[in-house]
Design a protein that fits this description.
about 350 residues, alpha/beta, Rossmann fold, six-stranded antiparallel β-barrel, about 25% strand, elongated
């Protein structure tokens, strides 16, 4: 997947996890005033626009339609996305709960097989464009979009005032084909959306969240010192400081997980999210993981945790002994879950 980042110049590029080369084009800040194009000559696109948080099965269904139309027309396929959530720009105090870090989202978009990802800087000026102005000035004149796919429930432009029929009309006037993507449905769910996935995670339903994502939800971070209580009761834990502080943290409780270290070694583990109510009255939520069959020092190292299943909610125990007994049962349950999970590498 080629990445065209109009939000920053090549000199400020951070490496991202994509399978092939990257192109970065400077000048993004002048995007709306110059009308210049930063694309290689001769490229026209079938494209879709969105934030794509989670890159869930609904997003993938949309992108498959973009790719199919591009293949039939002999054009390139593209997704146009933003480096930050649009509401974060429009509301200074808004902090979105995210399903993906930036690099993670780009990797997931690359895994769809789309030809190009355009990262468009979302500014207040951009937010004031009507749908027609956005289609003409940004998509048509700057990005050379020939055909635009619109998600079945997606709106864009100032105040999101117009819908699909208006987009079709604007497209006809400016010579852009506008198509409505079909809706993707999953058994047991009326719809698939990023907000639905967030809700599932926040209720502890990681299995259904993973089903809608098509991969295991993951938290990544760096190991930092903790209060070392786990070590004194036979369950040493690695305390995780998340790379993305705004990422969705699943419901408080105990989870069966897979832990991937920086050397790509994978360990089964038991993860806890909560406030340690048995030992203190803190309100700060910690994320800590007990790695099975691991002996070593993890402080300062980075790791990622893949959620497999929810085991139980957070409980305040009457004594340390009661907690330890329950942790032994939790570990047995986690090992059974991981042993029974025949699809550990299927996503």
């Amino acid at each position: 997947m080629k990445i065209i980042d109009l939000a920053k110049g090549k000199e400020s590029n951070d490496p991202v996890l994509v399978p092939s080369g990257e192109l970065f084009f400077p000048g993004g800040k002048e995007l709306l005033s110059t009308g210049d194009t930063f694309l290689p000559s001769g490229h026209t696109f079938v494209a879709t626009v969105g934030f794509f948080d989670g890159v869930h099965v609904g997003h993938r269904h949309l992108i498959e339609q973009v790719k199919g139309e591009a293949w039939r027309r002999g054009l390139s396929s593209a997704v146009v996305t933003f480096p930050v959530h649009p509401r974060e720009v429009l509301q200074s105090d808004y902090r979105p709960l995210l399903l993906n870090e930036r690099e993670e989202k780009l990797s997931l978009l690359a895994s769809t097989g789309v030809d190009c990802c355009v990262i468009l800087p979302f500014t207040e000026a951009l937010s004031q464009l009507t749908a027609e102005e956005f289609m003409r000035r940004v998509l048509k004149e700057t990005l050379r979009v020939d055909t635009l796919f619109v998600g079945y429930d997606h709106r864009f432009g100032r105040d999101r005032a117009e819908g699909y029929e208006a987009y079709v009309h604007h497209g006809e006037v400016m010579g852009m084909k506008v198509l409505l993507a079909s809706r993707y449905q999953v058994d047991g769910f009326s719809s698939v959306s990023s907000s639905r996935v967030r809700s599932l995670l926040q209720s502890g339903n990681v299995q259904d969240a993973n089903r809608l994502l098509s991969y295991r939800y993951t938290l990544s971070g760096t190991i930092v010192p903790g209060n070392r209580v786990g070590r004194t009761i036979g369950f040493p834990t690695a305390n995780i400081q998340l790379c993305e502080p705004n990422k969705v943290i699943p419901a408080k409780g105990v989870y069966a997980v897979r832990v991937r270290l920086k050397d790509n070694e994978v360990y089964p583990g038991m993860l806890y999210i909560g406030t340690r109510p048995t030992f203190n009255r803190e309100s700060t939520v910690s994320v800590e993981v007990n790695l099975f069959s691991f002996d070593g020092d993890l402080y300062g190292q980075s790791l990622s945790v893949e959620f497999i299943d929810f085991v139980r909610g957070e409980v305040k125990f009457n004594s340390k002994e009661e907690l330890v007994a329950r942790l032994h049962r939790d570990k047995e349950e986690v090992m059974k879950i991981l042993g029974d999970c025949t699809s550990l590498s299927s996503f």
